[in-house]
Design brief:
mainly alpha; four-stranded antiparallel sheet; about 5% strand; coiled coil; Zinc finger GRF-type domain-containing protein
Length: about 240
Amino acid sequence: MVSWSEGSSSSWDDDSVTSELPRTITCHEWSGIAHELFFRYMHLEPCLRQVAFQYTDTGRCFLACAKEKAEEKCFYLEWIDPEWSVAMHSCIGQLRSMHDKENEDRIRDKLKLGEENFKIIGEKRRMEEELRFFKLDFTKMVADKEEAISQLGSARLAISDLKEEIEKKKLADYSSTNPHQVLRAKAEKERDQLVLERDQMKKEKKKLEHINSDMMKRNHGYKDNVKKLKEICDEF
């Protein structure tokens, strides 16, 4: 139960106006507009119930200006709960320290996680950049290959055209040769053919002479044998 009495801070004394209001926390038991209380601040309107959530004042109920717009809101503050005892201050202080430390650890973890995410994002961007350069290099390589193939095809066509020109030139040179030289070349070719046939006939002649000589030798042998047979027959 929230305690409040006429002995609490006055509605408009020097302690009721501050330069800064404490931070607050949601509380269903002490919230909303305090219509049942007196008009206690400069607007002469009901105050707003709030619960402090700041340092050793955490948990204390107070009344404050109910204006929603910042330019209309004043810094009226009236504490409903008295200040906590020394032991309560110590407990709240420790709880706040634990809370602040937990927040610091959470922030530190978030920063660390953020740094890791930043590194991961940086590494991802670096890999994407390398992949982009690789794609550009690959595209350039493909283009260079296609250009080289095109140049090779052009070179082959040029070589084919050159060969055709050379053949045409040979035919033209052959057609433009002196007829006398053509006849002379033909005669020399026929002469060489006759010389070759003559040499072949000489070889055939020598071969026939050897065969004839051999046959003559064999013929003399037959004659001797016939003569011997005749002598033997005459003896009988």
